[in-house]
Specification:
Elements lengths: L3 H8 L11 H8 L5 E6 L8 H16 L2 E6 L1 H6 L14 H14 L14
Parallel strand pairs: 1-2
Length: 122
Amino acid sequence: MVDKKKIDELFRGVGKFIDPDDIFRKKLETSPEKIVIKFGVDPTRPDIHLGHAVVLHKLRQFQDLGCKVIFLVGDFTGSIGDPTGKSKVRPEIDNKIMVENVNTYISQIPKILKIEPITSAE
């Protein structure tokens, strides 16, 4: 069983968390190892920025409670950018640059998240 104070710390700073009947919180308290959280990013820039770091830090807190975190890098979505053409923040990028960006993400992520080697296709 997870210490309720650690869970309170996890939610500190969260403006509003909708959890009908406290189902998620109860699962955190009793069996956090059954919780899987997926976080995906587009590798449009070569470095993880402050916005990523804030979320990654929160994900690390979930890991510290026993939850599994899956960090996804969207290489296809990164390569096509914003298909509407409205966002200059998500430009279409060359495959070579996208691969380089993915590699920098892979080298930076272990500085924040706990990393486990992939043992089988999931």
